[in-house]
Recover the amino acids of this structure.
């Protein structure tokens, strides 16, 4: 019995799926790629997707083990775990997981062990909320801070009421340095204690790092504001701190140059100079950086042309880049982008509802529709409905290489 045949038999019994190296020609989306220290079997990535299933103390719920293990059943898959708070003081959403306490770390270790047992890999997304926090959800005494005393007027958290009175305090320079340290501690907890393969800094969607990057939010008058280099200083410093603890190959970042999912504030008139500078600095300072994760400009009025992020690709070169946004309903677009731009493609909604997404995409199997009402509720619950009860497709009559 050949090793390939034996692996196929094992895969069938374990209900996970194998892409044989003999498959030729393979679509670019299903070609192997090295990301940091890990070798992926394909380029379909689980995007970080907040589900708010942790306890009130930020401890990952036991059902989260099954959730991530299900989506790791195709060996060599990269999962990016949901946004996770770097420290208690960085919070302000209920039932969001953390990575600062021993109990949180132990719970995450169960998840990473389950993912690795299926032959896949997992990064943790690190989050600090800044002005997007809800003060009523913060622990008493924790400071409500941002780059500047500029409030958020629109609802940022799904189902929440608009904020009208909560104005953050501008962080002191000492607090900015402290936060870089908190990111580094969280990264060390994730990689060295909880078993993650790396960490991704959430510098998108209006959270704290972006509150320094955007000139429409950052109104400081010190070395962290004004010029592009000053506005990027906090992000670059926290990346340096993380890389010093876990290494640059295990360090990554997510960016949203064009807009926030919550549509708060008015974006920069031209984000290209800021993000061009930032990406070039990351490239030059960390030649072995894990990856850059970019949210595309996918939410545009009908008939309008989305803005391109190709300028980031040109600066970043042949290093790993993950593209996210709008691919759940555009299978052909994902295949085309992977082929033409050599990107990895991140999916949130489609991966939530289709734990066997890589195989479905490869074979053109119709995708299940997720229950939007269950994306974030019930908070802190172990209810599998809309979470771990999505069906796996029966691939028993076909291999993932497409042969009968």
């Amino acid at each position: 019995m050949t090793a390939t045949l034996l692996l196929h038999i094992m895969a069938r019994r374990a209900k996970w799926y194998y892409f044989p190296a003999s498959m030729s020609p393979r679509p670019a989306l299903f070609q192997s790629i090295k990301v940091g220290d890990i070798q992926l079997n394909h380029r379909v990535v689980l995007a970080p997707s907040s589900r708010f299933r942790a306890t009130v103390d930020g401890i990952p719920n036991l059902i989260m083990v099954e959730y991530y293990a299900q989506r790791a059943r195709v060996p060599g898959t990269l999962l990016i775990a949901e946004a996770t708070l770097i420290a208690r003081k960085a919070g302000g959403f209920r039932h969001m997981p953390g990575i600062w306490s021993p109990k949180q770390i132990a719970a995450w270790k169960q998840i990473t062990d389950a993912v690795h047992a299926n032959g896949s890999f997992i990064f943790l997304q690190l989050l600090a909320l800044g002005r997007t926090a809800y003060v009523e959800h913060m622990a008493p005494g924790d400071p409500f801070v941002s780059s500047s005393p500029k409030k958020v007027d629109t609802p940022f958290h799904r189902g929440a009421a608009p904020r009208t009175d909560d104005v953050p305090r501008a962080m002191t320079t000492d607090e900015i340095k402290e936060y870089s340290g908190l990111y580094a501690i969280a990264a060390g907890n994730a990689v060295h204690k909880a078993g993650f393969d790396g960490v991704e800094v959430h510098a998108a969607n209006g959270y704290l790092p972006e509150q320094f990057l955007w000139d429409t939010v950052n109104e400081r008058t010190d070395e962290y504001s004004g010029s592009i280099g000053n506005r990027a200083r906090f992000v670059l410093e926290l990346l340096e701190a993380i890389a010093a603890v876990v290494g640059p190959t295990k360090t990554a970042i997510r960016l949203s140059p064009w807009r926030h999912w919550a549509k708060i504030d008015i974006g920069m008139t031209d984000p290209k100079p800021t993000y061009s500078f930032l990406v070039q600095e990351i490239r030059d300072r960390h030649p072995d950086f894990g990856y850059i994760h970019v949210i595309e400009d996918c939410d545009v009025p009908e008939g309008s042309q989305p803005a391109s992020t190709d300028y980031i690709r040109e600066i970043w070169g042949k290093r790993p880049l993950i593209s996210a946004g709008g691919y759940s309903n555009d299978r052909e677009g994902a295949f085309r982008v992977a082929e033409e731009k050599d990107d990895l493609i991140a999916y949130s909604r489609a991966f939530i509802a289709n734990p066997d997404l890589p195989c479905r995409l490869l074979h053109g199997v119709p995708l299940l529709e997720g229950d939007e009402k269950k994306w974030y509720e019930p908070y802190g619950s172990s209810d599998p409905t809309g979470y771990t009860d999505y069906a796996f497709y029966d691939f028993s009559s076909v291999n993932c290489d497409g042969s009968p």
